[in-house]
Amino acid sequence: MLPLTATEAAVRPAKRINRGRLKYYAWGYLFVSPWILGVSIFTAYPLIYAAYLSFTKYDLLTSPKLIGFRNFSTMIQDDVFYTALGNTAYYTFVAVPAQLVLALFLAILLNQKMPLINVFRTAFYLPTVTPTVASVVLFMYLYNPDFGVFNQIVGWFGFERIKWLDDPAWSKPSLIIMSLWTVGGQMVIFLAGLQSVPQVLVEAASIDGAGPISRLRHVTLPMITPVIFFNLVLGIIGSFQVFTVAFIATGGGPIESTLFYVLWMYQHAFLNLKMGYAAAIGWVLLAIILLFTLIQFAVARSWVYYEGGES
Amino acid sequence: MGTLALGRGKTGSTRRRAGQSHLRSGIRAVTIYALLLAVGVISSIPLYWMVITSLKEAGKEFLFPPVWYPNPQVWSNYVEVWTLIPHIPRYTFNSFFISILATVGTLLSCSFVAFGFARMNFPGKNVMFVILVGTLMMPTIITLVPTFILFKTLRMTDNPVPLIVPFWFGGGAFGGAFYVFLIRQFMMQLPRELDESGLVDGASYFRIYWQLILPLSGPAMAATAIFSFIQHWNEFLFPLIFINEPTWRPLALGVRFFLNTYIGCCARGATPWNMLMTASFLMLLPILFVFFFAQKYFVRGIALTGLTGR
Question: Which residue of B lies nearest to A25 if distances are taken between CA atoms?
Fold first, then answer.
């Protein structure tokens, strides 16, 4: 609604209203104009330009040369494409569920009215704000096969030393364990979700004789399905783009076991200067992520509960 | 507390029930504290390790089994690191410079745009807002190559422009829409009468934004400032692509380059993990500072986005 219309309509002739309305609209567009510009220059244009580049051969030195679908056909014949995609899928489909379960567990623990609870909230969130570079360097040291503290801890439980990041079988699990250290963001979102569950419902279930497990299963979890869905969708989108940890800690190795999709794209773009090929690699990732997101939205109807049916 | 209740519960059936529920809530509290403590200890090990390693004597960081409490504690590591890592004072300055300017841009431009979405009306607003929310889910990685080429063509690589300027565009770039969304959700809650009284007083829409709505949006702005500062301070991929020369390298890149002189292709001796941990902790310090002074805005900031209500 326009705040002006009621008063203006009463006093001013019709023509003035239109002009006032136009002026009002103009102000509206003025306010969102930085975003319109930004989204055009830094989102829409790159998307379109990348789509064009994906059909070209471009090394930054000579101008892009159109080569049709050759980048895409190279990609599907490239074994590394499947390695990178497989590594990324492995990482995503193990790390994201593990992260969500842990984050939800922590949020439930923290969703109490008890003394000192804020201290724990802070402590659990702290790893998440640690700079990625600092935490990767830290974990490289913790994971060191010869003098890392993780091997000492593993030894207390009677296990053999593990080569962690240096062992192709352990490298991905190591990075996944590392990602569990920074679930604070998801945890806080779950916590906010838990705090918005109406206490009346939980108490009603309690009076009806439901125990804590059953209350969690039949009242709390259904009420926070929108939050679970949110974390799941964004978690998968984020994990498909995993880059920094592997770039610093392993460089994609050992034997390509942590060569993730974006790392592979980075190598083609900025080491091999194959901008066209990299753009094609990027667009394929966009398509894959879009597909997964759409599937999740379609499946969401069957398990996500929206209060009052509004979106 | 639990045992006391149990003793009293023996007298009558009602009391017993009350006693049992006391006992049960006592056990529950103990269990929760025990779990919290266990998780707290486990999740603290890495940061504890960072701190104690940063205080270890050179060479002591290679001992196995590792030492959990260093003796002596070498605090001079925190002085030495400033000369050991080349250009580290400059890197630190760069990180502050980039993070602060990008955050100021985010605050000004995102609140400006958020005002438009929250308090104004115009044809196409809803479509634009759907696009804005859509960009939240778009993988920013896809824009990497074209954005690099854009700035390369403009001869703006190896300077801080690509790391700052895109964030002055109202959340249009690199997932910044999150901040517009957050501030908009907050502005939506403010009473409409504010704008109307401003109009009656003859204020322009810009003054309504700048002098009425913005001063009332403190919590949302605080949350945005914190999230944005941390995001830019921690950012790795964009500087990696846009910055090659040390001159404008932020701390995140600098630490990684220092690490790279010891690990991988160009190794030149045993990695000085104690100094790396010192540098890492120095990098974490400003974040800790921001975090402890403003931690209440974290949870509130996320609650503000209204994610929970959707």
Answer: B122
